[in-house]
Amino acid sequence: xxxxxxxxFPDNQQKLDISWTNxxxxxxxxxxxxFALWFFSxxxxxxxxxxxxxxxxxxxxxxxxxxxxxxSLQVPKILEYAIATIGALALQGGPIFWVAGHRLHxxxxxxxxxxxxxxxxxxxxxxxxxxxxPKQEFFNGESYKKFAPELARDPFYCWLDSYHLLLQIxxxxxxxxxxxxxxxxxxxxxxxxxxWHSTWLINSVTHIWGYRRFETNDNSRNLWWAAILTxxxxxxxxxxAYPHVxxxxxxxxxxxxxxxxxxxxxxxxxATKVIMPPV
Length: 279
Description:
The longest helix is centred in the middle third of the chain and has 37 residues, at 168-204. The chain has a domain at 20-198. By secondary structure, it is an all-alpha fold. The protein has helices at residues 20-32, 42-69, 77-88, 95-107, 123-132, 136-139, 141-144, 149-152, 155-163, 168-204, 224-229, 236-241, 257-267. Helix 2 crosses helix 4, helix 2 packs across helix 13 and helix 5 (123-132) packs antiparallel against helix 10.
């Protein structure tokens, strides 16, 4: 592979230039995690785990994914905004960008041109390289907004999509005031890297390894250890067979922590129109 463009795709596919901004950003955050060796404390590690769950399970899995992307449930609008804001803190892009990309993934699963992180392009493409060699139609706001039109019409989501990176400033300040640089390194850098790779595993490994309950028109699979790392998202074949269902783990042993949170919201009367499995 050339360092400046992707060269190992078929001739009819677009040659993509490297995004030095994205490469330097992801590299810098990964490198900063090495400081965790000098700033270790059990409390800081606890902050990492807590934020990994809060931003990952509640923000990304419940908020960005099951609530906004698939509308698998409904919650009061103010709660929806709060959950989406938690998702924006995860440092995985704004809600319109994330939802649009995910909807394209489902509409054109594994298509090498139309699926932003097609597994057919290889493990590293679906895991990470789609961010390093970005296709402009997936990253340009005017292009991707048409795949999440209801969010693009909402002023709050437009603001959050444009300024989500600014949320890292108050988060960093709060962490510093609570525990100094140890909390910043563990709560922001280490947490971000672990959560990135947890999320990216669903794009990559769950289209390669695991078992298939449903004969979908793609290679999506259920993978138990990916489900544990991603709070239920690893039951990916279940999800691709019935993407609008709020529950990813269908069997009693298919652990789905995000579904536990949805159940709690339902019990409290805060989640309604929760879509259940048909069988």
